[in-house]
Design goal:
Elements: E1 14-15, E2 18-19, H1 22-26, H2 31-43, H3 64-74, H4 101-129
Antiparallel strand pairs: 1-2
Helix pairs in contact: 3-4
C-alpha cells in the first residue's frame, strides 16, 4: 500500500485540458510540478505563462531564518507601473526594445518570476545543505 502526500487530494486530475500524471499530482506543490505546469503553458504557445512560484511550498526542514528569506523572494513582484527589471538592473517602460509595451512588460514580469524562483531554490539548497552559518535550526548543525 502506498501512502500519498496530504496535498495529493488538492492536485487536479487535468490541467489545461491535459491529464496530470500521478507523479506530478503527488508532488503538486513542488518545483518539479511547477516546471510541469509551466511546460503545459508553453505547449499552448503561451510565451508568458503565469508565475508558478506561489504554488510551491517551502520545505518543512527549512530553518526560520531561511524560510523568511524564501518567502521574501516569493513575494517580490514585478511592478508594471515602473517597468523596472530585476532589482539592481533598472529599466524603463519608455525605452523598450521593440514597440509593444505590453510584451516588454510581460517579458520583464517573466524575468522577475524566473529570477525570484532561482533565488528561492538557492535558499533551499543553502539551508538544507546544513552548512549555512545563517541557519538558526537549534541543534541541527552537522557538528552537533
Amino acid at each position: 500500500m502506498t501512502t500519498m502526500s496530504p496535498h495529493f487530494a488538492e492536485a487536479p486530475y487535468r490541467y489545461l485540458d491535459v491529464s496530470v500524471p500521478d507523479e506530478i499530482r503527488r508532488q503538486w506543490h513542488s518545483w518539479e510540478a511547477a516546471a510541469w505546469r509551466r511546460s503545459r503553458h508553453m505547449d499552448t504557445n503561451n510565451l508568458f505563462p503565469p508565475d508558478q512560484r506561489y504554488t510551491v511550498r517551502p520545505p518543512a526542514a527549512m530553518c526560520p531564518h531561511h524560510r523568511e528569506s524564501w518567502v521574501g523572494y516569493r513575494n517580490m513582484n514585478f511592478d508594471p507601473v515602473s517597468g523596472n527589471r530585476w532589482p539592481g538592473h533598472p529599466g524603463s517602460p519608455f525605452v523598450p526594445v521593440g514597440r509593444d509595451l505590453n510584451r516588454v512588460a510581460e517579458e520583464r514580469r517573466c524575468e522577475w518570476d524566473e529570477k525570484a524562483s532561482a533565488q528561492m531554490r538557492l535558499i533551499e539548497q543553502i539551508c538544507l545543505s546544513g552548512r549555512s552559518p545563517q541557519c538558526d535550526r537549534a541543534g541541527d548543525s552537522p557538528a552537533a
